[in-house]
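Sample 3 of the quickstart, ligand protoporphyrin IX containing FE:
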Amino acid sequence: MSDKERLTVGALVTLLLFLAPGYLLHVSPRFAGSIGGGMLGIAGAILLVLLLVYPLVKHVNWLNVRVTRRLPLRSLLAFHVYAGVVGPVLGILHSGHNYQSPLGIALVLAMLIVVLSGFVGRYYLAYVAIGLRQQEGTLATLREAYNRIADTLAGREAIPSDLAGKVAGARGSIPILPLVDTIAELEYAIGAREKVRQVLGRWMVVHVTASIVMYFLLALHIWSGLYYGLRWLP
Ligand code: HEM
Ligand code: HEM
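Result:
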């Protein structure tokens, strides 16, 4: 995953989150059914269908063998991610912020859940994992320092030269209590972050379940759009 992808997709997700509740500022009741609005909706829906190429190629063996010779899964996933944010942006623009029907609202909500869970899986979990590794590294260093001080105080070990100055003459004043405090705080922070990681680790279940719901609602939405008539069709 490139930095460029992370930054671009992050910016697009932010745009989406600002656009989605735009009905607070602006509503265009007739836009979704107009030519321009309709085209945006159709373009968005096409992207949402095309991004399924990634899971299809990933799971369907004979497709996988044929396609990945020319297009690695990595590229298909990059396309999945870009189409997965651009499609929803087009869909929201198409809506003209005119959230009228329960169906339209549910469709938009399901779509946002899919995008956010995808974002968590693709970028945020890695970010949490890096932070966790750093904290665990610090904790290991602190524990080692603690053990050395404890051993020294117990007289089991010769006083190391870097501690000698501090220990000299005043064993009780070694900063062991602040050290114990810091270790306890760090252990607590790591535990909390580990919990976050476990919860977010279930992103895939949310991502896939919300997608199934979203495609179902999208199909209904398109059907009702066609059924009640596209206003710009003769
Ligand atoms: C990216 C996917 C799409 C999303 C998220 C989306 C969302 C919406 C929303 C929120 C509305 C506002 C009205 C409501 O609340 O029901 C709307 C209206 C509408 N959509 Fe979509 N839409 C999408 C794709 C499509 C497609 C592909 C079509 C083509 C058939 C379509 C046809 C319509 C029509 C005709 C209206 C106007 C209904 C009216 O004004 O009475 N939409 N859409
Ligand atoms: C509305 C748009 C989207 C839909 C419908 C969708 C749907 C799916 C589906 C069905 C899978 C297959 C899960 C499997 O392998 O069984 C998947 C995987 C995945 N999606 Fe999405 N997705 C969307 C947008 C996104 C976005 C915006 C991102 C990232 C920002 C993303 C990131 C991922 C990742 C990382 C995987 C799993 C990759 C792997 O480990 O194989 N998706 N998505």
